Amino acid sequence: NRTLRVLGKGRKERIIYLNDACVSSLDEYIDTTRPHVEQTAIFLSANKTRINKRRVQQIVDEQLQRAGLSNLGITTHKLRHTAATLMYQHGGVDTLVLKDILGHKSIATTEIYTHLSDENIKKAMESNPLSEEIEKKKK
């Protein structure tokens, strides 16, 4: 199956679509870590119960520490934000599609990612060497 049903904030249900890399990774995880567990949740504790949001954050923190990246202020929310920004800026994902992927109620929330792109464009234009030459001629 290439979809998952997930419960988001406010217990809002969404269907997410998985690419080949996700399907492969999840299949390998399930086959190696929990081959005979009958449970609807994918990620389980040692007691075979569903892990909660805080535990996910702890796991990410532990892995960041193992990788020597624990002092950079990386959080699960920043990872989500980065993934969305990359989809928008480099994947060409439309803001309405991104809104659905992220589970936002309002397009205004999703537009945070487009404003980041606008800021990057502004910085790129300001860093253009020709802009410095034009400013010199004005003086």
Topology:
Layout: E1 3-7, E2 13-17, H1 20-33, H2 53-66, H3 76-89, H4 95-102, H5 107-126, H6 129-138
Antiparallel strand pairs: 1-2
Helix pairs in contact: 3-5, 4-5
Task: Please characterize this protein's 3D structure.
This protein is mainly alpha-helical. It folds into two domains: 1-51, no CATH class; 71-139, no CATH class. Helices cover 58% and strands 7% of the residues. It has six helices and two strands; from the N terminus they run E-E-H-H-H-H-H-H. It has helices at 20-33, 53-66, 76-89, 95-102, 107-126, 129-138; strands at residues 3-7, 13-17. Strands 1-2 form a two-stranded antiparallel ribbon. A hairpin with a 5-residue loop joins strand 1 (3-7) and strand 2. Helix 3 (76-89) crosses helix 5 and helix 4 crosses helix 5. The relative contact order is 0.06. The mean pLDDT is 84.
